[in-house]
Amino acid sequence: MQVRLLLEVLLLAGIVSGCTSMGVEPWERDILARDEMQLTTDAVEAATDDHIYFSKEASSGGRGFGGGGCGCN
């Protein structure tokens, strides 16, 4: 019984500590901020995509998901 309890505690500790290193560290931000790491590096292309999205959705902002205004996601 004690061995099972010890194994359960170790398993729980492993699961809980598995999320401690998520996120971007401060020394990694300079690499991710480079122009070649951006999703859209062309300002005209980004503005065109924004205009198309605005026209389809009849809203502005919230470009973080795909799909159109037709409800066929």
What is the topology?
Layout: H1 2-17, H2 29-32, H3 43-57
Descriptive account of the structure:
This protein is mainly alpha-helical and 73 residues long. It has a domain at 26-58. The protein contains three helices and no strands. It has helices at residues 2-17, 29-32, 43-57. The protein is elongated. The termini are far apart. The mean pLDDT is 77.
What descriptive keywords fit this protein?
3 helices; mainly alpha; elongated; 73 residues
How would you describe the shape? elongated
User: What is the arithmetic mean of pLDDT?
Assistant: 77
Estimated radius of gyration:
22 Å
Taking pLDDT < 50 over at least 5 consecutive residues as the criterion, the unreliable ranges are none
Number of strands: 0
Helix content: 40-55%
- Main β sheet profile: none
Strand content: under 5%
Note the gap between the termini: 51 Å
What's the total helix number?
A: 3
User: What is the N-to-C order of secondary-structure elements (H for helix, E for strand)?
Assistant: HHH
Assembly annotation: single chain
Which class of secondary structure composition applies to the elements? mainly alpha
